[in-house]
Design goal:
This protein is 56% helix and 4% strand. It has 329 residues and is mainly alpha-helical. It has two domains: 106 residues; 179 residues, hpI Integrase, Chain A (Orthogonal Bundle).
Amino acid sequence: MSALAPTLQAFFTDRLVRQRNVSPRTIVAYRDAFRLLLDFVRQQTGKMPSVVDWDDLDAVVISAFLDHLETGRHNTTRTRNARLAAVHSLFRYAALRHPEHAALIQRVLAIPQKRCEKKSVSYLTPVEVDALLAAPDCTHWEGRRDRMLMLLAIQTGLRLSEIIGLDCHDVSLTAGAYVHCEGKGRKERCVPLTKPTVAALRTWLRERQGQPEEPLFPTHTGRRLSSDAVERRVATHAAAAGRRAPALANKHLTPHVLRHTTAMQLLQAGVDTSVIALWLGHSDPRSTQAYLHADMSLKEKALARTTPPSVRPGRYRPPDALLAFLESL
């Protein structure tokens, strides 16, 4: 076993768990980053992960890995930067344990985060929501599960990790019905449920017949759905819904778009952005301002309140012959 392997193991058990006490979701995100990196090195060099050493992870290899994420796996720039953040965290930890590789470590730490475009958030209109929820085949168990999952996501605005992390006991359908979840940064929150969602959940829980600690949305084998599985199911239903709502064909529909839809519904209903931030579990209320930029109706209302400048139609004509000559030059 190489010198890298014990350091990588200690990075998870010592640095992340014991020293920083990070959340399980952070552990999973870092784990996936290094699984992808070690698999990339194996494909490039033929070395199994247990024998990969620090010299195999120089700045050239890390840069090639980041390019592979964008060109080979078609990841976004934000995903690329998240993987690089995990690599940087490991190498900062390794700097204390492997001073003999200080030069290599510094070169990797010098790889910068990549700037990315800040696009306007995408969301669904009420017509598109109805088309999406009508897309699953509810004569099958998977279709009823998928419809309930998407309905809950659109009404509550939960993140994908929060949705698939729900257990049956996280749903309370008594007076003041709500769903309880643990979000990013281990922040717990409760999101209220509407009457239609409560009725749909009661029907689903009767069919689900799960124990309190079992996942609310399981696979056929009873295991918890993966994020990739949910993304594939949403994409499949979006393609089917595109036949009812042609506008959906021009949208890249992901589970996170359902979260954006919740925020836009609240914003257009006149809910204050600070309340929306609490609803979505944003640590910084400024994160909610992105929805203000995306809502054209708010800008149109602001425009309607302003007095348009009075401009006489027609082309500009110089008031003097000499000015006319100068303008013609």
